[in-house]
Structure formats: C-alpha cells, structure tokens
From TrEMBL:
Catalysed reactions, as listed in the record: L-lysyl-tRNA(Lys) + a 1,2-diacyl-sn-glycero-3-phospho-(1'-sn-glycerol) = a 1,2-diacyl-sn-glycero-3-phospho-1'-(3'-O-L-lysyl)-sn-glycerol + tRNA(Lys)
Name of this protein: Phosphatidylglycerol lysyltransferase
Principal location: membrane
Domain of life: Bacteria
Transferase found in the keyword field: yes
Keywords: Antibiotic resistance, Cell membrane, Lipid metabolism, Membrane, Transferase, Transmembrane, Transmembrane helix
Species: Vallitalea longa
Keyword Methyltransferase (UniProt): no
Entry's Gene Ontology cellular component terms: plasma membrane
Location in or out of the cell: Cell membrane
GO molecular function: phosphatidylglycerol lysyltransferase activity
EC class (word): transferase
Length: 341
C-alpha cells in the first residue's frame, strides 16, 4: 500500500511538471491553431491501436491461462489484463502488475496462487525475450540513422539496450543451461559482496525462482504451437504499441518521416525508460521522447506530440484501467449486497 501511494505521488509530481512545461512554453499561444489543424482521423487510429494493444494483452493471458486451468475464460483474462496494466503503471519498474494479477486470480476467481504465478511468469518470459530481440533488431536495422542523429545519446541508448537484452539472454540461457545461469548469479553475488552490496541478496531464494523459471520455460518449449502463437502475438502487440507515435506524428500534420524510423526510435525510448525506477517511467519517458523525437517533430509541436503520446499510452491507459477496476468492484459490492438481502 505504501509503495502504491508513493507511486501515485511520483506520477502526480511528474504530471504537474509536464503540464507546467506545456503551459510555459513559447508555443502555448499557437495551441488553439494546433488543435484546429489536428487531423482527428489519425488521432483516432492512435487511440484505436492502444485499445487493440490491450485486447491482444488480454488474449495472450487467455491463451496461456487456458492451457493451465479451465477456470480461465476470456472475460476473466480481460479483467486480469486491466489489473496488470493499472498496477504496473503506478509502481516502479512495473513491479506491481504481476503480484496484483496473482492476488486477483486467487481472491476473485479462487484460482490457486501456483496457477496464477505460472500464468504471469510464462507471459513475462515470452514478453522479455520478444521485446529484447525486437529492440536489438530495430537498433541494428537503423544503426546508421541512430549513430548519425543521436551521437550524443548513444551511450544511454546502448545501456538501455544492454539492460533489456541481458534479461532476454538470461531467459534463453535458462532454456539450455541452468548451471551456467547459477554460475553467473554466483559471480554477480561475489562482485556485490566486494562492493558491500550483498547484505540483502538471498542466494537460495533467487535459485528457487530460477528453478520456477526453468520449469515454466520447459513447459513453453514442450508446447511449440502455443509458444509460436504467443511469440507472434507479442510481436504484433509491440508493433502496435510502438506504432502509436507514428499516427500522432501524422495527426499533427507532420510529413516526411519514415514509418520504420519512428518505430525504431519509439522502441529505443521504451528500452531506455525500462530501467528507470519511476512508475510508468514518469519523467524519463517525457525526457526520452523529447530528446529522441525532436529529430522528427518541429519545435512548435514537439511538446504537444509528447503530451498526446503520454495521454494515450500512459494517462489514458491508467485512467481507463482504473475505471474498469472501479466499476467491477462496485458491481461486485452490489452483487454481494443483494445476495444477502
């Protein structure tokens, strides 16, 4: 609860900062004209893509869940998707999403914690591998463009890619050699001890988690049809999410940019922000967008492009998910109340 409150406070603070930057910018006088020339057709497509992203997220949960438990239906998967979205968006590193989903499965649907954990872990494993491969492929596809246009930021971009890729590589290694991963863990712990950072590191607990991951990876590998389906769905889901910026670009009347260029840079923004410990990458997302997308957007629309992107992908998502959870809770309350009348 304390972490949730801190997360909300951080989000509010960065929202106020963003609004201040927008209101104090020299281009504020041009805002009415900007609204007039906004091409709503492309803006609606951007919003539709966000909704499609959420729908695919629900479908992925359903595909994984139905293989494990008959209790998982598509409508339950939709609800669990919103639970994951909301709590991921208000907690640092999106750490609250999976525990909230596991708790919701147990408390609302009486699905065992072991089953809920398996579903969330499998989804995480697939997502992490796909997003790592997606990011690195985009980086090398547009490496000349990135090096030429972002020479001053290349260090931060590479760090973000390496952090994200490290997770994907570990998962791939786990599928072939648990022993090697444990050796890597022991090496990291050894370095941490020398730096006096290992007081809270519990090796036995980490190894238990590694065993759980290995078990889930083996189950995924043994069901190749489902694995391929999930990989394709996750790839499509990421492409849809990263494409939102391109349609915001078009909605603001901008032209000349290549779709793949914007897709690649949005992927970079995602991986750079992923290791920043603020809820929803608050602050880091806005800063990364501003620095990386000023190549595409003219100065008079850059801040507003950033605001539209965050409203659609973050604030709108958080409010929409929160409202769904609130409505479900209200209906549940009246249903329980009428049951005892």
């Amino acid at each position: 609860m304390k972490k949730k409150i801190i997360g909300i406070i951080i989000v509010v603070v960065f929202t106020i900062i963003t609004l201040y930057l927008l209101s104090s910018s020299e281009e504020i006088a041009e805002f009415p004209e900007l609204v007039k020339r906004l091409d709503l057709k492309f803006l609606y497509i951007a919003i539709l893509l966000m909704l499609l992203y959420l729908l695919i997220n629900s479908t992925i949960i359903f595909v994984i869940g139905k293989e494990i438990s008959k209790e998982i239906t598509f409508m339950k998967s939709v609800y669990l998707s919103f639970v994951g979205q909301y709590y991921s968006l208000i907690t640092p590193f999106a750490a609250g999403g999976q525990p909230a989903q596991i708790f919701a499965m147990k408390s609302k649907y009486n699905i065992p914690i072991s089953v809920g954990t398996t579903i969330t872990v499998k989804k995480f494993l697939i997502f992490q591998v796909v997003v790592s491969l997606y990011a690195i492929s985009m980086f090398f596809t547009k490496i000349h463009f990135i090096v030429n246009r972002y020479s001053g930021l290349i260090v931060f971009i590479v760090i973000g890619l390496c952090v994200n890729l490290f997770g994907g590589i570990l998962i791939i290694l786990l599928s072939y050699s648990k022993v090697l991963v444990v050796k890597i863990l022991d090496f990291i712990i050894l370095i941490a001890k020398k730096l006096h950072l290992a007081k809270r590191i519990k090796r036995d607990v980490i190894v238990e988690h590694i065993d759980d991951y290995v078990k889930n990876i083996e189950e995924i590998k043994n069901n190749k049809k489902t694995m391929i389906t999930l990989i394709i769905m996750t790839f499509v889901q990421l492409t849809i999410y990263f494409s939102i910026t391109y349609f915001i670009y078009l909605s603001l009347g901008s032209t000349g940019a290549n779709y793949i260029d914007i897709l690649a840079i949005q992927t970079i923004v995602y991986v750079v922000v992923s290791f920043i410990p603020t809820p929803g990458g608050a602050g880091a997302s806005e800063g990364s967008f501003y620095l990386l997308f000023r190549v595409f957007f003219t100065r008079d629309v850059l801040l507003y492009a950033m605001a539209l992107w965050r409203i659609i992908t973050y604030y709108g998502n958080m409010i929409f998910s929160g409202l769904i959870l609130l409505i479900v809770r209200i209906f549940g309350y009246f249903k329980r109340k009428n049951k005892y009348v």
